[in-house]
Specification:
6 helices, 7 strands
Length: about 180
């Protein structure tokens, strides 16, 4: 299975870590687990972003037309709440798994994706203000195994939706429990 990862949201103007960025050490665990299952991991991003250990291919700074072709040839993707999920939605490309932390997947998620949120208690109060001064909170992210399970479930069953049309998985619950909710 070929999986794209888009691990980083835009850099903040203040230089602070973007609170939407999943911890690199967690990414490394996700990649290691998926690689052990035989998955090929392709990382996409902008010039200057670090390569996550374990990715098979690292693509930086490609034009949208080339990124579209990469997406069309992948089975799915994993991304933080950033440009990539919105691009795939707008271009009607394959759906994927989106990692949320402090932004609300009910507002910013797309219904065709599996939107992962650890707990609504971590959502920031003002969802529409910029992210430059929002403190980073590693505790707001789901654990790596939740992402691996979500990817496998997403690829295996891309038609399950929750009541409001969004697939939002919270915490470390099993996929069967989360999908039944």
């Amino acid at each position: 299975m070929k999986i794209i990862i888009a691990p980083f949201a835009a850099r903040t103007l203040t230089g602070n870590p973007n609170p939407k960025n999943y911890p690199i050490r967690f990414w490394e665990q996700v990649i290691a687990k998926l690689t052990m299952l035989g998955c090929e991991i392709i990382q996409i991003g902008v010039v200057g972003e670090p390569r996550i250990e374990g990715v098979g291919e690292f693509i930086q700074g490609w034009p949208l037309k080339k990124l579209r072709a990469v997406a069309e040839n992948a089975d799915t993707w994993i991304s933080v709440d950033s440009f990539w999920p919105h691009f795939c939605h707008t271009e009607r490309l394959k759906s994927g798994v989106v990692i949320f932390s402090q932004s609300d997947p009910i507002i910013f998620g797309h219904p065709e994706n599996t939107n992962l949120l650890k707990d609504r208690k971590y959502l920031r109060e003002f969802q529409f203000q910029d992210w430059h001064n929002t403190p980073y909170n590693e505790a707001a992210f789901v654990l790596p195994q939740v992402i691996v399970d979500a990817v496998l479930a997403h690829v295996g069953n891309q038609t399950v939706k929750s009541q409001n049309g969004h697939r939002t998985i919270q915490g470390s619950v099993s996929m069967a429990t989360a999908e039944a909710a």
